[in-house]
Amino acid sequence: MTVFSDKTIKEGWQRAGGRCECRLVPHEHLGGRCGRTLTWENRGKESQDGWEAYCRSKICDDDALWNLEILCWECYQNAP
């Protein structure tokens, strides 16, 4: 799990519109983005609408919004 501030996570959640932002090519999402609907209270939970904040870069010490991606639990578990 990466370390993002609550503020950055909330901003990422708003940007994502409560949907998975995964665009990873190996996941082969139709339309280019997963888009699964998520539930705010289910962060870190292995469930249909569970999710986690994912670090886009290899260096995960940057608390910047560009570095955060909201992923459903399935995409998060299969991310590199």
Can you tell me about this structure?
The protein has one domain. It is 21% helix and 12% strand. Strands 1-2 form a two-stranded antiparallel ribbon. It is an alpha+beta fold and 80 residues long. The chain contains 2 helices and 2 strands.
What is shown here, in short?
Helix content is 21%, strand content 12%.
Top keywords for this entry?
single chain; 80 residues; alpha+beta; two-stranded antiparallel ribbon; 2 helices; 2 strands; 21% helix; 12% strand
Q: Secondary-structure map with pairings?
A:
Blueprint (H helix, E strand, L loop, with lengths): L5 H11 L34 E5 L12 E5 H6 L2
- What is the number of E strands? 2
Instruction: Specify the structural class.
Output: alpha+beta
User: Helix amount, in percent?
Assistant: 10-25%
Q: What's the order of the H and E elements?
A: HEEH
Distance between the first and last residues' Cα: 13 Å
Name the poorly predicted regions. Answer: none
Largest sheet: 2 strands, antiparallel
* Rounded Rg: 11 Å
**Number of structural domains:** 1
Sequence of strands across the biggest β-sheet? 1-2
Morphology: globular
The mean pLDDT is 90
